[in-house]
Amino acid sequence: MTTQTIFEQIQLKKSFLCLGLDPDLDKIPSHLVASSEEPLFDFCKAIVDNVHHLCVSVKINTAFFEAYGVAGFATLNKLADYIKSHYPELFLIADAKRGDIGNTSLRYAKAFFEAMPFDAITIAPYMGKDSVEPFLTYQDKHAILLALTSNEGAADFQLKANDKEVLYKQVLKQSQNWNNASQLMYVVGATKAEHLSEIRKLVPESFLLVPGVGAQGGSLEDVYTHGANENIGLLVNSSRGILYAGSGEDFAESALEAANVLQQQMENLLRA
Amino acid sequence: MTTQTIFEQIQLKKSFLCLGLDPDLDKIPSHLVASSEEPLFDFCKAIVDNVHHLCVSVKINTAFFEAYGVAGFATLNKLADYIKSHYPELFLIADAKRGDIGNTSLRYAKAFFEAMPFDAITIAPYMGKDSVEPFLTYQDKHAILLALTSNEGAADFQLKANDKEVLYKQVLKQSQNWNNASQLMYVVGATKAEHLSEIRKLVPESFLLVPGVGAQGGSLEDVYTHGANENIGLLVNSSRGILYAGSGEDFAESALEAANVLQQQMENLLRA
Asked: Fewest CB atoms within 10 Å of the CB: A13, A107, A205, B115?
């Protein structure tokens, strides 16, 4: 999917919401766990079916499926196939944090872009250029580089000065010179909104995937004010705030309401 | 598995060889691809059965299985189970380069330490302390942090000065203060052997996983001279040099010969 298509979807849906799927058997409604043979799939399917029209992107956190072994991995594949075949307009992200030497990264690209139908995958930049470029050899597919993450540990290395510049800025700057850099996006935590204006100077055109609004305390308005560009350029993720809005039989309606609130806030920001 | 057990195995087998399993359908013997229903499994099983007595560790590169979708992931699980049940003395590493915010890293730990029987997993340190510590809450399990990797891209960030110190040294130093740091190991590429003496000053006790001998051009002798500590503290990986030593019906015997050469070199170094 091209970034132009994502922008068109944002305009159409008046939303730059990314729905994050991190399903946790301990948190999903107990009636579903008790009655379903595939509770992870059925839970995520119900949520996506109910909120797909309010979001432009879906981000699947692969760890929450891998934790359940082969059956979990099969569910991950089934879910990705379901979403892409029913809602091809959704930008489908594998939040997988992969990245390795070139010939290994090529295998991960094959896994997520060929064996599975993802449009993008999140990548840790630690191993540098040749660990990322293999993902960018796929037309209209995207690598979303970790830049400044939302967690506490972001302070350990990302915010440390590197050649007189903090590491995450080096990542932004340098990666812009890599082959097919126009297919790069970046993860920037909403809890780090004060850095967004600086980040926009370094990567004015790129889409930013922004987790951390909601449960982690980031502000949607701050993110939009400092992070939006002329194509909006933002995919703001919400996971727990939507997934676990309700815990009863009507969990999917509760999710719809929670997503509706976010979409309305986004529509107001887009209009302003 | 404790590091003491690994040291005992090194003494017993007179080897600090880690066998790397990165099986590639384009490179494994064509008769196997033609005749086997599970060529990846059968190929790896034959190699492990033939060389297990010459190595103390096996490292499975998960990307080479994930590339084949659900069937590939099932083979990864089956292979890990096979190795751990038949050769429990081998230190079994998932070369998976995972790492995410805390509650996600916990899921990856569950995937590799509970759903699968790995003793260790490789981790990218970019997201800092809270992305790594969840892996260290498992007794006698290990996180192997990327420090200085063997690829060209290592120069992009790892070797950049960070607060007047190169990034990989910050990773080594800071991680030593994390909870259960005694369960940390580090990836240091053999192609960077000139850094090993410095690295040993920062992490004198830790095991180092060293890829890059052989195909990538690193020298075993340099690695040993600059990297060994009193418990040896090295797991030197060889993948392609052993896996693809032969391409005919006798590929497993060719692998045995290649592993034998490496084990002999290691025995000589250990004796000297």
From this structure: A205
